[in-house]
Amino acid sequence: MDLMFSSMLRVVKAARQHPDAAAVLEGMQVYQYAEVYHSAVRMAERLLEGRADLQEACVAYQVPPGFGYVRTLWGIWLAGGIAVPISLSHPLPAIEQLLEDTGAEALVVSCDQAVLLQETASRMGIRLICEGEPEGKEGIELPVIHADRAAMILYTSGTTSRPKGVVLSHANLEAQMRVLIEAWGWKPSDHILCVLPLHHVHGIVNVVGCALFAGARLEFLPSFSPQAVFDVFLRGSVNLFMAVPTIYFKLANHYDSLPLTEQQRLTESMRRFRLMVCGSAALPVSVMDRWESISGQRLLERYGMTEIGMALSNPLDGERRAGTVGQPLPGVCVRIVDEQGQDLPPGAPGEILVQGPNVFRSYWQRPEVTEDAFTKDGWFRTGDVAVLEDGYYRILGRLSTDIIKSGGYKISALEIEESLRGHPLVSDCAVTSLPDEEWGERIVVALVGEAGLCVEELDGWLRERLPRYKLPRQYLLVAELPRNAMGKVVKGSVKALF
What we know:
The chain is of the alpha/beta class.
Protein backbone atom coordinates (compact mmCIF):
# COMPACT_ATOMS: atom_id res chain seq x y z
CA MET A 1 0.00 0.00 0.00
CA ASP A 2 1.38 3.38 -1.01
CA LEU A 3 1.58 6.36 1.30
CA MET A 4 -0.98 8.77 -0.17
CA PHE A 5 -0.48 11.69 2.16
CA SER A 6 0.92 15.17 2.22
CA SER A 7 3.45 16.79 4.53
CA MET A 8 2.50 15.23 7.86
CA LEU A 9 3.03 11.67 6.76
CA ARG A 10 6.59 12.41 5.88
CA VAL A 11 7.18 11.52 9.53
CA VAL A 12 6.43 7.92 8.55
CA LYS A 13 8.27 8.09 5.22
CA ALA A 14 11.04 5.88 6.59
CA ALA A 15 8.52 3.03 6.59
CA ARG A 16 8.49 3.38 2.83
CA GLN A 17 12.18 4.16 2.30
CA HIS A 18 13.57 1.54 4.72
CA PRO A 19 10.81 -1.08 4.99
CA ASP A 20 13.12 -3.91 6.07
CA ALA A 21 15.21 -1.85 8.50
CA ALA A 22 14.82 -2.24 12.26
CA ALA A 23 12.56 0.53 13.58
CA VAL A 24 11.48 -0.31 17.13
CA LEU A 25 13.25 -2.52 19.65
CA GLU A 26 11.32 -3.60 22.71
CA GLY A 27 12.93 -6.21 24.93
CA MET A 28 14.02 -9.07 22.68
CA GLN A 29 11.54 -8.11 19.95
CA VAL A 30 12.60 -6.16 16.86
CA TYR A 31 9.97 -4.54 14.61
CA GLN A 32 10.78 -3.45 11.08
CA TYR A 33 9.54 -0.17 9.62
CA ALA A 34 7.10 -2.00 7.36
CA GLU A 35 5.65 -3.84 10.38
CA VAL A 36 5.15 -0.61 12.30
CA TYR A 37 3.47 1.07 9.35
CA HIS A 38 1.09 -1.75 8.45
CA SER A 39 0.14 -2.22 12.11
CA ALA A 40 -0.57 1.53 12.32
CA VAL A 41 -2.81 1.28 9.26
CA ARG A 42 -4.83 -1.43 10.98
CA MET A 43 -5.07 0.76 14.10
CA ALA A 44 -6.33 3.58 11.87
CA GLU A 45 -9.00 1.26 10.49
CA ARG A 46 -10.21 0.48 14.01
CA LEU A 47 -10.38 4.17 14.83
CA LEU A 48 -12.23 5.08 11.65
CA GLU A 49 -14.96 2.43 12.03
CA GLY A 50 -16.00 2.81 8.42
CA ARG A 51 -15.64 6.60 8.24
CA ALA A 52 -13.47 8.21 5.61
CA ASP A 53 -11.68 10.64 7.95
CA LEU A 54 -11.67 11.46 11.68
CA GLN A 55 -11.63 15.13 10.66
CA GLU A 56 -9.42 16.26 13.56
CA ALA A 57 -11.40 14.45 16.26
CA CYS A 58 -9.34 14.11 19.44
CA VAL A 59 -8.14 10.61 20.31
CA ALA A 60 -6.51 10.30 23.73
CA TYR A 61 -4.14 7.44 24.42
CA GLN A 62 -2.40 6.06 27.49
CA VAL A 63 -0.07 3.40 26.15
CA PRO A 64 3.30 2.27 27.60
CA PRO A 65 6.47 3.12 25.64
CA GLY A 66 7.20 0.63 22.88
CA PHE A 67 5.83 -0.73 19.63
CA GLY A 68 2.23 -0.28 20.80
CA TYR A 69 2.83 3.40 21.53
CA VAL A 70 4.24 4.09 18.07
CA ARG A 71 1.52 2.24 16.15
CA THR A 72 -1.17 4.00 18.20
CA LEU A 73 0.30 7.45 17.50
CA TRP A 74 0.78 6.75 13.81
CA GLY A 75 -2.67 5.15 13.60
CA ILE A 76 -4.33 8.29 15.00
CA TRP A 77 -2.50 10.44 12.46
CA LEU A 78 -3.23 8.10 9.55
CA ALA A 79 -6.94 8.22 10.42
CA GLY A 80 -6.94 12.03 10.47
CA GLY A 81 -7.27 12.45 14.24
CA ILE A 82 -5.56 14.65 16.81
CA ALA A 83 -3.33 12.62 19.12
CA VAL A 84 -3.61 13.44 22.84
CA PRO A 85 -1.02 11.53 24.90
CA ILE A 86 -1.74 10.89 28.57
CA SER A 87 0.97 10.33 31.17
CA LEU A 88 1.13 6.80 32.54
CA SER A 89 1.27 8.27 36.04
CA HIS A 90 -1.85 10.45 35.70
CA PRO A 91 -4.44 9.73 38.41
CA LEU A 92 -8.03 9.18 37.34
CA PRO A 93 -9.21 12.77 38.07
CA ALA A 94 -6.44 14.16 35.85
CA ILE A 95 -7.35 11.74 33.06
CA GLU A 96 -11.00 12.72 33.27
CA GLN A 97 -10.09 16.42 33.19
CA LEU A 98 -7.99 15.93 30.06
CA LEU A 99 -10.71 13.88 28.34
CA GLU A 100 -13.31 16.51 29.17
CA ASP A 101 -11.11 19.42 28.09
CA THR A 102 -10.29 17.90 24.69
CA GLY A 103 -13.71 16.37 24.10
CA ALA A 104 -11.95 13.16 23.07
CA GLU A 105 -14.17 10.79 21.15
CA ALA A 106 -11.97 7.75 21.80
CA LEU A 107 -9.45 6.57 24.39
CA VAL A 108 -6.80 3.99 23.51
CA VAL A 109 -5.25 2.20 26.49
CA SER A 110 -3.30 -0.94 27.28
CA CYS A 111 -5.47 -3.95 28.05
CA ASP A 112 -4.69 -3.89 31.77
CA GLN A 113 -5.83 -0.26 31.96
CA ALA A 114 -9.03 -0.93 30.02
CA VAL A 115 -10.69 -2.54 33.04
CA LEU A 116 -9.85 0.43 35.25
CA LEU A 117 -11.11 3.02 32.75
CA GLN A 118 -14.21 1.24 31.45
CA GLU A 119 -16.60 2.97 33.85
CA THR A 120 -15.09 6.39 33.16
CA ALA A 121 -15.28 5.96 29.40
CA SER A 122 -18.86 4.71 29.58
CA ARG A 123 -19.98 7.57 31.82
CA MET A 124 -18.34 10.17 29.55
CA GLY A 125 -19.60 8.60 26.35
CA ILE A 126 -16.09 7.89 25.07
CA ARG A 127 -15.21 4.86 22.98
CA LEU A 128 -12.62 2.73 24.79
CA ILE A 129 -10.13 0.82 22.63
CA CYS A 130 -7.74 -1.79 24.00
CA GLU A 131 -4.45 -1.32 22.19
CA GLY A 132 -3.45 -4.98 22.53
CA GLU A 133 -6.60 -6.51 21.04
CA PRO A 134 -6.41 -8.38 17.69
CA GLU A 135 -6.10 -5.97 14.80
CA GLY A 136 -8.45 -5.66 11.88
CA LYS A 137 -7.62 -6.25 8.25
CA GLU A 138 -5.62 -3.74 6.24
CA GLY A 139 -7.76 -2.88 3.28
CA ILE A 140 -8.99 0.69 3.60
CA GLU A 141 -8.33 3.91 1.77
CA LEU A 142 -6.79 6.34 4.18
CA PRO A 143 -7.54 10.07 4.15
CA VAL A 144 -5.24 12.67 2.66
CA ILE A 145 -3.84 14.76 5.52
CA HIS A 146 -2.79 18.32 4.81
CA ALA A 147 0.10 19.93 6.62
CA ASP A 148 -1.94 22.65 8.31
CA ARG A 149 -4.27 20.20 10.06
CA ALA A 150 -3.93 19.69 13.80
CA ALA A 151 -1.84 16.65 14.71
CA MET A 152 -1.36 16.70 18.48
CA ILE A 153 -2.34 18.38 21.72
CA LEU A 154 0.34 18.47 24.41
CA TYR A 155 -0.37 20.02 27.78
CA THR A 156 1.90 22.53 29.46
CA SER A 157 3.22 21.82 32.95
CA GLY A 158 0.98 24.47 34.50
CA THR A 159 3.73 26.06 36.61
CA THR A 160 2.12 29.51 36.45
CA SER A 161 -1.52 28.68 35.64
CA ARG A 162 -3.67 25.67 34.93
CA PRO A 163 -2.21 23.46 32.15
CA LYS A 164 -3.00 24.60 28.62
CA GLY A 165 -3.47 22.35 25.60
CA VAL A 166 -0.90 23.24 22.95
CA VAL A 167 -2.19 22.47 19.45
CA LEU A 168 0.60 21.43 17.08
CA SER A 169 -0.06 21.00 13.37
CA HIS A 170 1.59 18.37 11.19
CA ALA A 171 3.67 21.16 9.67
CA ASN A 172 4.83 22.25 13.17
CA LEU A 173 5.92 18.72 14.07
CA GLU A 174 7.71 18.17 10.79
CA ALA A 175 9.54 21.49 11.15
CA GLN A 176 10.60 20.59 14.69
CA MET A 177 11.92 17.21 13.59
CA ARG A 178 13.63 18.42 10.43
CA VAL A 179 15.59 21.12 12.21
CA LEU A 180 16.90 18.67 14.82
CA ILE A 181 17.77 16.02 12.24
CA GLU A 182 19.82 18.66 10.44
CA ALA A 183 21.38 20.29 13.50
CA TRP A 184 22.22 17.08 15.35
CA GLY A 185 23.25 15.02 12.34
CA TRP A 186 20.67 12.23 12.57
CA LYS A 187 21.34 9.27 10.24
CA PRO A 188 19.60 5.94 9.50
CA SER A 189 22.58 4.25 11.17
CA ASP A 190 21.77 5.88 14.53
CA HIS A 191 20.41 3.85 17.44
CA ILE A 192 18.84 5.70 20.37
CA LEU A 193 17.57 4.49 23.74
CA CYS A 194 14.37 6.17 24.94
CA VAL A 195 13.93 6.60 28.70
CA LEU A 196 11.84 9.79 28.63
CA PRO A 197 8.10 10.21 29.31
CA LEU A 198 6.07 10.16 26.10
CA HIS A 199 3.53 12.87 26.87
CA HIS A 200 6.06 15.73 26.53
CA VAL A 201 7.77 17.22 23.50
CA HIS A 202 11.22 16.03 24.64
CA GLY A 203 10.37 12.36 24.35
CA ILE A 204 7.79 12.52 21.55
CA VAL A 205 9.60 14.85 19.14
CA ASN A 206 13.29 14.86 20.01
CA VAL A 207 13.59 11.11 20.51
CA VAL A 208 10.69 9.12 19.02
CA GLY A 209 9.82 11.52 16.19
CA CYS A 210 13.36 12.28 15.06
CA ALA A 211 14.52 8.66 15.27
CA LEU A 212 11.69 7.34 13.11
CA PHE A 213 11.73 10.31 10.71
CA ALA A 214 15.46 9.72 10.17
CA GLY A 215 15.01 5.98 9.62
CA ALA A 216 17.05 5.17 12.73
CA ARG A 217 16.53 2.49 15.40
CA LEU A 218 14.46 3.37 18.46
CA GLU A 219 14.83 1.21 21.57
CA PHE A 220 12.55 1.30 24.60
CA LEU A 221 13.00 0.20 28.20
CA PRO A 222 9.91 -1.06 30.04
CA SER A 223 10.91 1.08 33.03
CA PHE A 224 13.84 3.27 33.96
CA SER A 225 16.66 2.12 36.18
CA PRO A 226 20.31 3.18 36.00
CA GLN A 227 21.51 -0.42 35.75
CA ALA A 228 19.08 -1.21 32.93
CA VAL A 229 20.36 1.83 31.00
CA PHE A 230 23.96 0.81 31.55
CA ASP A 231 23.22 -2.78 30.49
CA VAL A 232 21.96 -1.43 27.15
CA PHE A 233 25.00 0.84 26.83
CA LEU A 234 27.33 -2.11 27.37
CA ARG A 235 25.86 -3.96 24.38
CA GLY A 236 27.60 -1.38 22.23
CA SER A 237 24.87 -0.74 19.65
CA VAL A 238 23.38 2.49 21.06
CA ASN A 239 25.17 5.65 19.91
CA LEU A 240 22.65 8.37 20.87
CA PHE A 241 21.13 9.26 24.22
CA MET A 242 18.92 12.10 25.42
CA ALA A 243 17.83 12.74 28.99
CA VAL A 244 17.13 15.34 31.66
CA PRO A 245 19.68 16.51 34.26
CA THR A 246 18.14 14.31 36.98
CA ILE A 247 18.72 11.18 34.90
CA TYR A 248 22.36 12.04 34.28
CA PHE A 249 22.75 12.73 38.00
CA LYS A 250 21.26 9.32 38.88
CA LEU A 251 23.39 7.54 36.29
CA ALA A 252 26.53 9.20 37.64
CA ASN A 253 25.69 8.18 41.22
CA HIS A 254 25.05 4.59 40.14
CA TYR A 255 28.29 4.57 38.17
CA ASP A 256 30.17 5.51 41.35
CA SER A 257 28.72 2.46 43.12
CA LEU A 258 29.94 -0.03 40.52
CA PRO A 259 33.16 -2.07 40.64
CA LEU A 260 36.13 -0.49 38.90
CA THR A 261 36.16 -3.07 36.10
CA GLU A 262 32.53 -2.35 35.20
CA GLN A 263 33.16 1.40 35.37
CA GLN A 264 35.98 1.00 32.88
CA ARG A 265 33.79 -1.05 30.51
CA LEU A 266 31.03 1.55 30.72
CA THR A 267 33.36 4.47 30.10
CA GLU A 268 34.86 2.71 27.10
CA SER A 269 31.38 2.03 25.72
CA MET A 270 30.08 5.59 26.27
CA ARG A 271 33.14 7.18 24.68
CA ARG A 272 32.01 5.62 21.39
CA PHE A 273 28.64 7.41 21.45
CA ARG A 274 28.04 9.93 18.69
CA LEU A 275 26.03 12.34 20.84
CA MET A 276 24.46 12.81 24.26
CA VAL A 277 21.89 15.59 24.78
CA CYS A 278 20.46 17.16 27.93
CA GLY A 279 17.41 19.38 28.32
CA SER A 280 14.00 20.11 29.89
CA ALA A 281 15.67 21.74 32.90
CA ALA A 282 18.79 23.76 33.62
CA LEU A 283 21.90 21.54 33.57
CA PRO A 284 24.15 22.29 36.56
CA VAL A 285 27.73 22.78 35.42
CA SER A 286 28.83 20.37 38.13
CA VAL A 287 26.68 17.60 36.60
CA MET A 288 27.93 18.41 33.10
CA ASP A 289 31.58 18.23 34.18
CA ARG A 290 31.04 15.08 36.23
CA TRP A 291 29.30 13.29 33.37
CA GLU A 292 32.06 14.27 30.95
CA SER A 293 34.68 12.78 33.28
CA ILE A 294 32.66 9.55 33.49
CA SER A 295 31.60 9.12 29.87
CA GLY A 296 33.95 11.22 27.81
CA GLN A 297 30.84 12.96 26.42
CA ARG A 298 30.37 16.71 26.54
CA LEU A 299 26.60 17.01 26.93
CA LEU A 300 24.84 19.11 24.32
CA GLU A 301 22.41 21.42 26.12
CA ARG A 302 19.49 22.97 24.25
CA TYR A 303 16.38 25.04 24.93
CA GLY A 304 12.78 24.46 23.96
CA MET A 305 9.26 24.24 25.28
CA THR A 306 5.92 22.64 24.48
CA GLU A 307 4.78 25.52 22.27
CA ILE A 308 7.86 25.71 20.06
CA GLY A 309 9.72 22.41 20.17
CA MET A 310 13.43 23.27 20.21
CA ALA A 311 14.61 26.82 19.47
CA LEU A 312 18.22 27.04 20.70
CA SER A 313 21.01 24.49 20.77
CA ASN A 314 24.69 24.22 21.46
CA PRO A 315 26.50 23.08 18.31
CA LEU A 316 27.04 19.48 17.28
CA ASP A 317 30.49 20.50 16.05
CA GLY A 318 31.98 23.34 18.03
CA GLU A 319 32.13 24.59 21.60
CA ARG A 320 29.36 23.36 23.87
CA ARG A 321 29.57 26.10 26.44
CA ALA A 322 28.60 25.15 29.99
CA GLY A 323 25.65 27.05 31.41
CA THR A 324 24.34 28.09 28.00
CA VAL A 325 21.86 26.74 25.46
CA GLY A 326 23.74 27.81 22.36
CA GLN A 327 22.40 29.62 19.31
CA PRO A 328 19.12 29.61 17.32
CA LEU A 329 18.49 26.46 15.33
CA PRO A 330 18.25 26.74 11.53
CA GLY A 331 15.04 28.47 10.47
CA VAL A 332 14.19 29.61 14.01
CA CYS A 333 14.24 33.35 14.76
CA VAL A 334 14.96 34.52 18.32
CA ARG A 335 14.87 37.99 19.93
CA ILE A 336 15.50 39.27 23.47
CA VAL A 337 13.27 42.19 24.40
CA ASP A 338 12.51 44.43 27.36
CA GLU A 339 9.10 44.90 29.02
CA GLN A 340 8.07 47.31 26.26
CA GLY A 341 8.95 44.80 23.54
CA GLN A 342 12.07 46.67 22.41
CA ASP A 343 15.11 44.66 21.30
CA LEU A 344 17.93 44.54 23.81
CA PRO A 345 21.68 44.51 23.08
CA PRO A 346 23.93 41.53 23.96
CA GLY A 347 24.55 41.32 27.68
CA ALA A 348 21.17 42.72 28.68
CA PRO A 349 18.65 40.23 30.13
CA GLY A 350 15.16 40.14 28.66
CA GLU A 351 12.32 37.92 27.54
CA ILE A 352 12.89 35.47 24.69
CA LEU A 353 10.59 35.84 21.68
CA VAL A 354 10.48 33.10 19.04
CA GLN A 355 9.16 32.93 15.50
CA GLY A 356 9.31 30.17 12.90
CA PRO A 357 7.51 27.15 11.39
CA ASN A 358 8.16 25.24 14.62
CA VAL A 359 5.89 27.53 16.67
CA PHE A 360 2.47 26.17 17.65
CA ARG A 361 -0.81 27.39 16.18
CA SER A 362 -3.00 27.94 19.25
CA TYR A 363 -3.96 26.86 22.75
CA TRP A 364 -6.86 24.45 22.65
CA GLN A 365 -10.14 26.36 22.85
CA ARG A 366 -8.50 29.35 24.55
CA PRO A 367 -8.43 32.12 21.94
CA GLU A 368 -7.83 34.97 24.39
CA VAL A 369 -4.88 33.19 25.99
CA THR A 370 -3.53 32.44 22.52
CA GLU A 371 -3.77 36.08 21.50
CA ASP A 372 -1.96 37.19 24.67
CA ALA A 373 0.85 34.72 23.96
CA PHE A 374 1.86 36.48 20.75
CA THR A 375 3.01 40.01 19.94
CA LYS A 376 1.02 42.00 17.40
CA ASP A 377 3.59 41.11 14.73
CA GLY A 378 3.41 37.37 15.44
CA TRP A 379 6.29 36.62 17.82
CA PHE A 380 5.62 34.06 20.54
CA ARG A 381 6.29 35.28 24.06
CA THR A 382 8.05 32.41 25.82
CA GLY A 383 7.92 33.92 29.32
CA ASP A 384 11.58 32.92 29.75
CA VAL A 385 14.36 35.39 30.46
CA ALA A 386 17.77 35.02 28.84
CA VAL A 387 20.91 36.96 28.07
CA LEU A 388 23.12 36.77 24.96
CA GLU A 389 26.81 36.53 25.89
CA ASP A 390 29.54 36.14 23.25
CA GLY A 391 27.11 34.60 20.80
CA TYR A 392 25.60 32.08 23.25
CA TYR A 393 22.23 32.35 24.97
CA ARG A 394 22.03 31.74 28.70
CA ILE A 395 18.65 31.10 30.32
CA LEU A 396 18.02 33.01 33.55
CA GLY A 397 14.62 31.50 34.33
CA ARG A 398 10.87 31.99 34.02
CA LEU A 399 9.78 35.61 34.06
CA SER A 400 6.95 34.78 36.48
CA THR A 401 8.69 32.40 38.87
CA ASP A 402 12.49 32.42 38.56
CA ILE A 403 13.17 36.15 38.25
CA ILE A 404 13.39 37.89 41.62
CA LYS A 405 12.81 41.64 41.59
CA SER A 406 14.90 42.97 44.44
CA GLY A 407 16.39 46.40 45.05
CA GLY A 408 15.68 47.49 41.49
CA TYR A 409 17.44 44.46 40.00
CA LYS A 410 16.00 41.45 38.15
CA ILE A 411 17.87 38.57 39.72
CA SER A 412 17.90 35.05 38.31
CA ALA A 413 17.15 32.37 40.91
CA LEU A 414 18.74 29.79 38.57
CA GLU A 415 21.91 31.86 38.34
CA ILE A 416 22.18 32.07 42.12
CA GLU A 417 21.62 28.33 42.47
CA GLU A 418 24.37 27.59 39.98
CA SER A 419 26.77 29.96 41.78
CA LEU A 420 26.05 28.45 45.20
CA ARG A 421 26.46 24.88 43.89
CA GLY A 422 30.03 25.80 43.09
CA HIS A 423 30.77 26.29 46.81
CA PRO A 424 32.76 23.32 48.16
CA LEU A 425 30.49 22.97 51.22
CA VAL A 426 27.14 23.16 49.33
CA SER A 427 25.79 19.84 48.08
CA ASP A 428 22.59 21.24 46.61
CA CYS A 429 20.28 24.21 46.94
CA ALA A 430 17.06 25.84 45.82
CA VAL A 431 16.38 29.56 45.58
CA THR A 432 13.12 31.47 45.89
CA SER A 433 12.03 34.81 47.38
CA LEU A 434 9.90 36.35 50.12
CA PRO A 435 8.19 39.76 50.23
CA ASP A 436 10.33 42.43 51.89
CA GLU A 437 9.44 46.03 52.73
CA GLU A 438 12.91 47.35 52.04
CA TRP A 439 13.91 45.29 48.99
CA GLY A 440 10.55 44.40 47.48
CA GLU A 441 11.64 40.77 47.44
CA ARG A 442 14.46 39.12 49.36
CA ILE A 443 16.35 36.07 48.14
CA VAL A 444 15.73 32.91 50.16
CA VAL A 445 17.97 29.85 49.90
CA ALA A 446 17.27 26.30 51.07
CA LEU A 447 20.38 24.18 50.94
CA VAL A 448 22.08 20.93 51.88
CA GLY A 449 25.46 21.87 53.28
CA GLU A 450 28.53 20.29 54.83
CA ALA A 451 29.83 20.95 58.34
CA GLY A 452 31.42 24.36 58.73
CA LEU A 453 29.26 26.20 56.29
CA CYS A 454 28.17 29.65 57.49
CA VAL A 455 25.85 32.28 56.07
CA GLU A 456 28.48 35.02 56.14
CA GLU A 457 30.69 32.97 53.84
CA LEU A 458 27.81 32.31 51.46
CA ASP A 459 27.08 36.04 51.36
CA GLY A 460 30.63 36.79 50.33
CA TRP A 461 30.79 33.89 47.88
CA LEU A 462 27.68 35.10 46.08
CA ARG A 463 28.65 38.80 45.98
CA GLU A 464 32.03 37.94 44.44
CA ARG A 465 30.49 35.82 41.66
CA LEU A 466 27.51 38.05 40.89
CA PRO A 467 28.89 41.58 41.37
CA ARG A 468 26.41 43.23 38.98
CA TYR A 469 23.58 42.63 41.48
CA LYS A 470 25.43 44.64 44.19
CA LEU A 471 24.02 42.52 47.00
CA PRO A 472 24.63 43.95 50.49
CA ARG A 473 26.11 41.97 53.35
CA GLN A 474 23.78 39.86 55.47
CA TYR A 475 21.26 39.87 52.62
CA LEU A 476 20.51 36.17 52.14
CA LEU A 477 17.97 34.23 54.14
CA VAL A 478 19.27 30.66 54.37
CA ALA A 479 17.53 27.53 55.62
CA GLU A 480 19.82 24.56 56.16
CA LEU A 481 18.31 21.14 55.47
CA PRO A 482 20.07 18.72 57.85
CA ARG A 483 20.95 15.22 56.64
CA ASN A 484 20.77 11.96 58.55
CA ALA A 485 23.50 9.32 58.91
CA MET A 486 22.54 7.90 55.50
CA GLY A 487 23.14 11.27 53.88
CA LYS A 488 19.48 11.97 53.13
CA VAL A 489 17.76 15.23 53.94
CA VAL A 490 15.79 15.03 57.18
CA LYS A 491 12.23 15.86 56.19
CA GLY A 492 10.40 18.40 58.30
CA SER A 493 13.57 19.45 60.10
CA VAL A 494 14.69 22.86 58.84
CA LYS A 495 16.86 25.22 60.86
CA ALA A 496 16.65 28.82 59.73
CA LEU A 497 19.85 30.86 59.80
CA PHE A 498 19.52 34.63 59.40
